[in-house]
Amino acid sequence: PSKTVTGANDVHSGTSAVADPRIPEDNETGVFIIISEDGTWHRPLTTLELAVLQGLPTTLPDGRPLILAGKSDARWRERIGNMVPVAAAQAIAETMLRTMLAQEVGEWLMS
Fold it and tell me: Where are the annotated segments for Disordered (predicted)?
């Protein structure tokens, strides 16, 4: 049988879950760090670091720092996570353009 694709998922169960007894309970609050098996600790990435990893600049063309619309850090992080990095979007668009131009002149193109 094939796997089922679900529209929602819970990090604590399902095929995407990793059994980790260190996962905090839903009612626990605080600043958490990730401690690997060898004892190395990793802090969560900041919202600006996530934006830079996705290809957003740290400053605007006029020199002002990157400021995202709205006040919700959680929504910023969600939008940053859902975005397509600039370099990937450009590569996709260029491939689409080459394919459409080839089709327009009656050629077949395998990318």
Answer: 1-22
